[in-house]
């Protein structure tokens, strides 16, 4: 029921933010499309923790500014690598082990790695990740430990961060 | 206090169009830098890192610039939606491309490259 | 200055088209097309602001969605040679769900 309400609120906010009209006709059309979407989501059986991840929105809101800071720092490195006259890069493949428990936390961790320029998640299998990095010295497994810990805390909750 | 707030708002009204367009220009230059990286880097996996500059910093700087120039709040909401779409879908697409290439057996270049300055074949 | 930003993005799009044409492997081309799509989203938004009609942002949102779906569809097609196969890894079936 909480998932249902979360999806309802998110979809209603999306409709109102997109249309910006408050006439009865458009509000009625919005209500109809909300109803159709909710019925479809219920029949597809995706009203669960992964499909409606709004329960962890506070933890994620705390995680996001830190991620932005990391992205800005990594961007600077890659921009320098793009513009240098000599192509001074040392690509590497690193194997990682994550402490994230749930699939959603693993997805958050892997997407954070991919979103940071200079590192891309190539494969996930269980709790092992294969990461391609642009600089060998910047992408050692220890460099990802804090991101791992923070994304696990953001999605899995306080108790799961080992 | 109200006077100061009114002054600040007036200042913001004056400054937001030049600041917004300057941020748009900066973001566009970041996009071009990412594209130059895509042209220069030696193999597929490294090109992917350059392409992610466009997706992260270029897109967010341009969207912040457009939000400064926005005429009303509806436009800001739409810009936030675009920001979320780009930030949620671009790492997924990058991972899909990388995973498909890795599954198909494309071997990445490992180790230091670029000791000789003329070995990047796509530098034209 | 917004128009200059639009021109710069168009320049980047032209460079990406060259990468799409000369890309040695298929995945280079897919990557270039995906990045081209992101740039198209930004260019549509900027075009709306240059022309003074921010309603173009609706089209940009739609294009962002279509860009993602088309990238995934192309990759799925080149991996399985069909759109009918479910996107589940064959060796990931063990365990309870999604291994």
Would you write up a description of this structure?
The complex is a heterotrimer of chains A (162), B (124) and C (99). By secondary structure, chain A is mainly alpha-helical. Chain A has 2 domains: 43 residues; 99 residues, no CATH class. Helix content of chain A is 56%, strand content 12%. Chain A has a 3-stranded antiparallel beta sheet with strand order 1-3-2, covered by helices on one side. In chain A, helix 3 runs antiparallel to helix 5. Chain A is elongated, with a radius of gyration of 20 Å. The two termini of chain A are 31 Å apart. The model of chain A has no long low-confidence stretch (mean pLDDT 82). Chain B has one domain. In chain B, helix 1 packs antiparallel against helix 2. Chain B is elongated, with a radius of gyration of 20 Å. Chain C is mostly helical and 99 residues long. Helix content of chain C is 72%, strand content 0%. Chain C contains 3 helices and no strands. The chains are: A mainly alpha (162), B mainly alpha (124), C mainly alpha (99). Chains in contact: A-B, A-C, B-C. At the B-C interface, helix 1, helix 2 and helix 3 of B face helix 1, helix 2 and helix 3 of C.
Strand and helix map with partners:
The complex is a heterotrimer of chains A (162), B (124) and C (99).
Chain A: H1 2-19, H2 24-44, H3 57-83, E1 92-97, H4 103-115, E2 119-125, E3 128-133, H5 145-156
Antiparallel strand pairs in A: 1-3, 2-3
Chain B: H1 2-40, H2 44-68, H3 73-103
Helix pairs in contact in B: 1-2, 2-3
Chain C: H1 2-22, H2 26-50, H3 56-80
The level of helicity of chain A is 55-70%
Overall pLDDT score of chain A: 82
The structural domain count of chain A equals 2
* Percent range for β-strand residues of chain B: under 5%
Q: What's the arrangement of strands in the largest beta sheet of chain A? A: 1-3-2
Overall body shape of chain A: elongated
Measured distance between first and last alpha carbons of chain A: 31 Å
Low-confidence stretches of chain A: none
Q: Major sheet of chain A: size, sense and barrel closure?
A: 3 strands, antiparallel
* Rg over C-alpha atoms of chain A, rounded to the nearest angstrom: 20 Å
Number of strands of chain B: 0
Report the radius of gyration of chain B as a whole number of Å. 20 Å
List the main descriptive attributes of the protein structure presented here.
heterotrimer; A: 162 residues; three-stranded antiparallel sheet; 3 strands; 56% helix; B: 124 residues; mainly alpha; 77% helix; elongated
């Amino acid at each position: 029921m909480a998932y249902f309400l979360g999806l309802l609120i998110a979809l209603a906010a999306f409709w109102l933010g997109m249309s910006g009209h408050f006439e009865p006709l458009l509000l009625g059309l919005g209500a109809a499309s909300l109803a159709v979407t909710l019925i479809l989501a219920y029949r597809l059986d995706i009203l669960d923790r992964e499909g409606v991840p709004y329960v962890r929105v506070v933890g994620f809101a705390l995680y996001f500014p830190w991620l932005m800071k990391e992205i800005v720092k990594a961007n600077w490195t890659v921009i320098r690598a793009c513009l240098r006259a000599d192509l001074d890069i040392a690509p590497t493949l690193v194997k990682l082990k994550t402490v994230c428990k749930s699939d959603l936390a693993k997805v958050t961790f892997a997407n954070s790695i991919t979103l940071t320029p200079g590192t891309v998640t190539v494969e996930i299998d269980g709790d092992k990740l294969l990461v391609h990095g642009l600089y060998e010295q910047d992408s050692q497994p220890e460099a990802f430990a804090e991101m791992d810990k923070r994304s696990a805390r953001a999605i899995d909750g306080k108790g799961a961060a080992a | 206090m109200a006077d100061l707030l009114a002054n600040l708002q007036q200042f913001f009204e004056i400054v937001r169009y030049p600041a917004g367009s300057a941020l748009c220009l900066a973001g566009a230059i970041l996009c071009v830098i990412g594209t130059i990286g895509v042209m220069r880097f030696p193999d597929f996996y490294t090109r992917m890192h350059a392409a992610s500059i466009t997706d992260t910093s270029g897109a967010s700087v341009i969207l912040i610039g457009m939000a400064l120039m926005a005429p009303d709040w509806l436009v800001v909401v739409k810009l936030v939606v675009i920001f979320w779409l780009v930030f949620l879908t671009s790492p997924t697409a990058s991972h899909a491309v990388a995973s498909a290439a890795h599954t198909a057996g494309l071997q990445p270049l490992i180790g230091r490259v670029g000791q000789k300055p003329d070995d990047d074949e796509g530098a034209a | 200055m917004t128009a200059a930003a639009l021109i710069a993005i168009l320049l980047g799009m032209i460079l990406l088209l060259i990468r799409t044409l000369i890309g040695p492997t298929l995945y280079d081309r897919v990557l270039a097309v995906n990045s081209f799509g992101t740039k198209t989203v930004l260019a549509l938004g900027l075009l709306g602001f240059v022309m003074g009609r921010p309603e173009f942002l609706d089209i940009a949102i739609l294009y962002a969605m279509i860009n993602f779906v088309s990238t995934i569809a192309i990759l799925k097609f080149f991996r399985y040679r069909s759109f009918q196969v479910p996107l589940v890894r064959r060796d990931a079936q063990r365990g309870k769900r999604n291994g």
